[in-house]
Structures are given as C-alpha cells and as structure tokens.
Amino acid sequence: MSAPEPDSPGTNAFDPSAPDAVAAAERGLLEVRGLVKRFGGVTAVNALDMTVRAGDIHALIGPNGSGKTTTLNVISGLYRADGGSVGFGGTDLVRLPAHRIAARGIARTFQNIRLFGELSVLENVMIGRHVRTSAGFLGALLPGGATAREERATREFALEMLRFVGLEHAAPHAARSLPYGDQRRVEIARALASEPRLLLLDEPAAGMNPAETDALVELLRAIRARGTTLLLIEHDMNLVMAISDRLTVLNFGQHIAEGPPAEVAHHPAVIEAYLGGTLDAA
Amino acid sequence: MNRRALGLGVLVAALALVPSFVHSDYLLNLCDLAGIYAIAVMGLGILLGFAGQMSLAQAAFFGIGAYTSAWFTTHLGWPVWPSMALAVVLSALVGLGVGYPCLRLSGHYLALATIGFGIITQLVLINWKDVTNGSDGISGIPAPVLGPWTLESYGSYYYLVLAAVLVAAYVAWRIKTTRVGRALEAIRENELAARATGIDATRYKIVAFVLSGAYAGLAGSLLAHSIKFVSPDSYSFDQSVVFLVMLILGGSSSIGGAILGAVLLTFLPEVLRPLKNSYIMVYGAAVVAMVIFMPKGLMGLIETLRARLGRSHPGPPLAAAGAAGTSAAAAAGGTSVATGIDPA
C-alpha cells in the first residue's frame, strides 16, 4: 500500500493515541462487518465484510445486482442497515444520519449524477463545503465580519477544487448546462470540497469516452495523492485493474474475494461469478 | 455592481417619493397592500422558492400575525411595536410547530397537510369567539406611533411598509447568498445529494418554515395596523392560493420576483375592475397566460430579455438576480402606480 501524504486528512483516520498504530493501519480506515440490508423479502447485502485501507484506491466490483450501490448507500447513510457495522475512524456509522456521516469525512458521488442543477457550478462546490463551515442565519444578517470571511474562504476553496478537476472556467454556469463528463467532475469537486478522508465513487467512468476515462484515472490518482482514500464501484475492468490497490468482489450481496487485483482476478469464486471469464479478459 | 447599487438607490428614492405625487387614498392603500403582500410572498419564497417545500398555508400565518397584533393592542392595550414584534415571533413559533410534523411529508402530501392547517386556522379564527370575536372580527386596531408622528394616513403608513419591504428583501437576499440559503437551495434541487453533502435537511426545512411564518406574521401585523380591522375572510385558503400565484408568477426563487408578483396581482384586479362581472374571468385567464408564457415567472422573462439585449454578464448569477430583481420589481411597482391606475 502506498503511504498517504504526511499532512493529509487521510492519515487522521488513525487514532494517534492508539497503542499500536500499525495494528490500527491493519484494521483499515473503513471496516464493514456483517453488513445486512434487506428490501422487503430481498436481501441485497448479506453479511458483507470489507476492509478499506487508508490511502488505497479500493474497488468494489461484482455482477449487476450484486449489491454494490446498496453497500455504498448504507455506508453513506442514505439507507439504514438491517444489521452489522460500518467502522470508520473508530466509530460505527450504522446508526448515524447521512449528514453526520458526511461531517465525519465521507463524501460521495452518485451513479446517476445528482447535482444541484439550477445552481451554478461554483455554488454546487460551495455547498460541498457545508460541513467545513458554520455560518448560520444570524450571521447571514450582518454584512462583514466572520460570515463574510468564511464566505470568501468558501468561494476560494471551491474555486481551487474546480481548478483541481479542471473546470474553473465553468464556475458561473448552471450545473445542468454542462456536458455529462464535466458534470461528473463537478460532482467530484463538490465531494472534495468537504476535504473527505474517504471518497465513495459510484461508477465514475460510466458514460465516459476513452479519453475522458483516461483523464478520470489521472484525476483519481491525484485525489489519492492529496491523501484521500477512494472506494469506487466500477464496471470498466481495465480501469479497475489499472488503478486499484485492492478489490472487493461481491456476488449476491456477499463478499466472495478481497485482495490485490492480480490475486483476485485468479480467484476461483470470482471467475465463477463472472461466468467463467477471467477478469482481465472481461 | 456599483451600477446596480446605484440603480437600486434611485429606485428606492423614487418609491419614497410616491406619497408626494400620489394623493389618492385609494391608490396609496393599494400601494400599502402590495408591499404587505410582497412581504408575505417573500416568506413563501424562502419556503417554496428557496427550499422547495410547498405550502398552501401562508394566509394562516398571515392571519396569526394580524390577530396577534389586533388582540394585544385592543384587548390588552399593548403599544403597537411590541405587538408587532410578538406577531412575528408567534407566527415563527407556529411555523416551527407546523414545520416539525410536516417534515415527514413531501410534495403533494405536504401541500395537503398545509391546506389542512390553513383551514383549521381559519376555523379557529371564526369559532374562538372570546378571542377573535368570530366572523365580526376585531376593529379599532390602533395605528403605530413613531415619535411625534402617528402613522394614521395611508401616505405615512406607506413609509413603514416600504421600510419593512426593504428590510425583508435585504434579509431574504442575505439568506439566499450565504450558507443557509445555499443549503436550502440544495435541498430543493436534490434532497438526497444535499443530505449526502452534509446538510441536515430536517433542520433546514424547519428553518425555512420558521422564516416563512415570521415573514407572514410581519405582513399580517402590518395589515392589521393599516386597515385597523381584522376578520377571518382575509386569511382564507383563497388568500394562500393568491400568495402562491403571486410567487409563481413573479419567479419563485427570486426575491425581486416575489415582490413583482405581489405588486402585479394587487393592482391587476383594480385595473380590471371596470369589467365588472367578467373581471374574475379575465383575471384568471391573464394569470394562466402568464404562467404558460413565462414558465420561470416575470423574473425569468426579465432575465431572458436582458440576455437578448446582450447585457447579461458572466458573474455568478445569484447575487445578480437578487439585487436586479429587487430593482426591477420596484420599477414595475412604480410603473403600475404611475400608469396602470391613472384613470382612477
């Protein structure tokens, strides 16, 4: 595993007071244990275990309907788990509402892009800064002072995130007016604005052409270099194999394999799940 | 930016001069009403326009504000200003009480729940005779006194309403262009994404309900001290629908649009009055036509025209919309007064 940047938010994942920092690292930034999610009679996620190590790019793969997106939705608090735990930086997220999970340092993007379409690109990213800012109603009433400073800082940070994803020029435009690939980048910029320790990406390359996908790979690596851990769902196996440090393979809501790509690709259960094809051929 | 501030200043000055040129009590009363409605509609704009939460109970909060002012001044002999402040606080608290249980609802169900609340409120106003004096209403509400002046005439009251509109618009604009407003708009645009972005949607929706109630309460109190009389008819479901139409017509997420819609729909029935019986038909048709041909309201139309004239600038659109909206609304208000009602 590659070491995170020393001053990065990702390194905060470990409790510095822990008696054994190495053991903490082994435990991982995100620890999913026995996670269960049912919809009526259907068990979408069934006793799932998954460990995402700090500083990794971790891919969650599996056939359609295997429970990947459901898992992401439970981790980010949009669904309430029916059992199990999601450990993150020493706390269990399972009972927390989505906005508290976001405040703890987990940001995400959506498979079907969910931007604030009528708002400008800049505002979208400024909203991403919500958990890192505090101005309330009373602060808003008075011009100047702390609120004005915070507002300026928010704007600047949002612009920096837009520069980071290469969309500074799009800042004043309505988010919905952007091309699809750019909208995905705005979503990533919005997520990064909260300076997350863990970024969840649900099929970030979906609908992208090869050039856009290449650019995305560069972007994801740059995000990891900032110290953010990434957990992504992705169908594009070339992309997964190229950038993942580790994979978790799901089938029928259950973990069937976890490890480095080369190892997982030859795992019999994985080959079975992908109907006899090896992963690198998929 | 400076040009816009200058334009806004000129318009406010022009509006301040209205009582010097308009001497008809009838017209001045309409101007007061337009301003009062504008405040209630801005409140609805915070709830529906910013946060995307439908409410058909704005007239109920309007009524709570009006009756609070009426009761405390006439029964308890309170001075006007504290009664007015209490009207705002009480309406805000009722907003909290209504907002909280309604948060589990959204869309049509929320709309239905607010209709229910509006109807209950009106029934209370009609039937709680000890306090509200039933259908007869409460009369003899005093005018506010400001130092040596009693704001008794429609002309002097106009300045109070104008000041209140300006403060209300300023507050709404500050909310819209800072963190709270962005959170509200995020909820409107995509609640799921807003929650995943760390916005406590429940809390912010309550904030929107409270603010919306406070605005309506202020407006109701201003109405009570303007016409010196309250009765349940003024706070009916119909009035809530009128507020909604004013907002949608003006442009729901724009502050200027809320003011513009309120002004237009206050004066339009008066302009159409010579049509007698067929007036309500023409009024209805006019509203339908405006909604069809201006799906984004009057502010949307103004933005489009500005863009066509090549005067759109690439700056962040929101701050621009707020300030420009206010001035445009003020301009339209002025125009209505100057031209629309001349024959009267």
Would you write up a description of this structure?
The complex is a heterodimer of chains A (282) and B (344). Chain A has helices spanning 21-27, 68-75, 98-103, 121-128, 137-141, 145-164, 180-192, 210-225, 237-243, 261-265, 268-273; strands at 30-39, 42-52, 57-61, 83-88, 91-92, 106-108, 198-202, 229-233, 246-251, 254-259. Chain A has 282 residues and is of the alpha/beta class. In chain A, the strands form 2 sheets. In chain A, strands 6-7-8-3-9-10 form a 6-stranded mixed β-sheet, with helices on both faces. In chain A, strands 2-1-4-5 form a 4-stranded antiparallel β-sheet, with helices on one face. In chain A, a hairpin with a 2-residue loop joins β4 and β5. In chain A, α4 packs parallel to α7 (180-192). Chain A is globular, with a radius of gyration of 19 Å. Residues 1-22 of chain A have low confidence and may be disordered. Chain B has 16 helices and 4 strands. Chain B has helices at 2-16, 18-21, 25-50, 58-74, 80-102, 107-127, 129-132, 154-176, 179-189, 191-196, 201-227, 237-250, 255-271, 279-293, 297-308, 317-340, and strands at residues 138-139, 145-146, 149-150, 229-230. In chain B, β2 and β3 (149-150) form a beta hairpin. Chain B is globular. The chains are: A alpha/beta (282), B mainly alpha (344). The interface between A and B is large, with 44 and 31 residues.
